[in-house]
Amino acid sequence: MRNVLLSASVLTALALVGCGDDTRPASTGVAIDGFCDDFVDAICDDVAACSCGATADADCRSELATNCGGASGVLSPAVRARVTAGTVVYDANAAGALLAQLRAEASCDNPIIAVGWDVTEALSFGGVLSGTLAPGASCVGGGDSPFGSACAEGLCTNVDGAARCIGLAGLGEPCGMGIDSVCLDLNAPFATLVGGDLSLRCNIASGATTGTCAALLADGATCAGPDECASDRCEATVCAPPLANGADCFLGSECSSGFCSGSGASAVCAAAATVNNGGACMDDNECVSGACQRDVCVEALCATVGSEPPTP
């Protein structure tokens, strides 16, 4: 089977979170030169309301300006060069719609989750940036933002040692040797795929080189590896149930709680999301907010703007 490697950055993307109860009217279109300034304002204008600390506003603006227009940003010089060359299309109307959604977000949660993107929408940054190169074409990969790829389906990754555009294959679509695609639940909420869970497997019959994308296997099904199992556990060629709290683990997906606490030989499955803001933590999954900053649970926004956590 062709060796397709997905970088973690492809599915985790930038941690863009914010408050934002801005009531300014939505723009019908935003030019590329004005997008980053408006993007920073849409997220950071009301950051103080999230109790992220005295320097949160300045930290938010500095962080997101870099994440938008910096060397590895959404609209980095490399991405803008692709727009100029025509291998990436910038949609001003989609940009205006995204900014309107971000301004309407009234919580301190991750707005990328709040806007409700599915996988394909996330890979095009909400339709703002769309590539034009077909699967199989050579592309620039590595060290770049996951957004702004010149690939039509958004994925530029390592295929047999070279950067190539990869297609997205949904349920029932072809996959396997010689097919430049990866199985993915295209309609799944993007938030459910953070962490690299591809949600589908390539089902290839014995002796064949190609197959079709299929659902992950249930507990008790015969498996060739953990990536085929919904539990992420294949024991003695059988999909095993998730691990109970206290069992040794390597990945959170192995645990019934979804949380593998600790690292190395000391990592064990543990209850997740039990600590409120201000409580002590070691991992994001321990916090009800989903954000652990400097060993303290904080609002999701606060963990990304670089500010010291507020005093409990």
Features:
disordered N terminus, single chain, alpha+beta, 312 residues, 4-stranded mixed β-sheet
Overview of the structural elements:
With 312 residues, this protein is an alpha+beta fold. Helix content is 20%, strand content 16%. It is built from 7 helices and 15 strands. The strands form 6 sheets. It has a 4-stranded mixed β-sheet, with no helix packed on it. The longest helix has 14 residues, at 56-69. It is flat, with a radius of gyration of 21 Å. The chain starts with a strand and ends in a 15-residue tail after the last strand.
Largest sheet: 4 strands, mixed
Order of helices and strands: EHHHHEHHHEEEEEEEEEEEEE
Provide the gyration radius in Å. Answer: 21 Å
Instruction: Give the strand tally.
Output: 15
Low-confidence stretches: 1-26
How big a fraction of the residues is strand? Answer: 15-25%
Strand order of the largest sheet: 1-4-5-7
Q: Gap between N and C termini, in Å? A: 53 Å
Oligomer class: single chain
Helix coverage percent = 10-25%
Mean model confidence by pLDDT = 81
Number of separate helices: 7
From the spread of the alpha carbons, the general shape counts as flat
Going by helix content, strand content and strand pairing, the class is alpha+beta
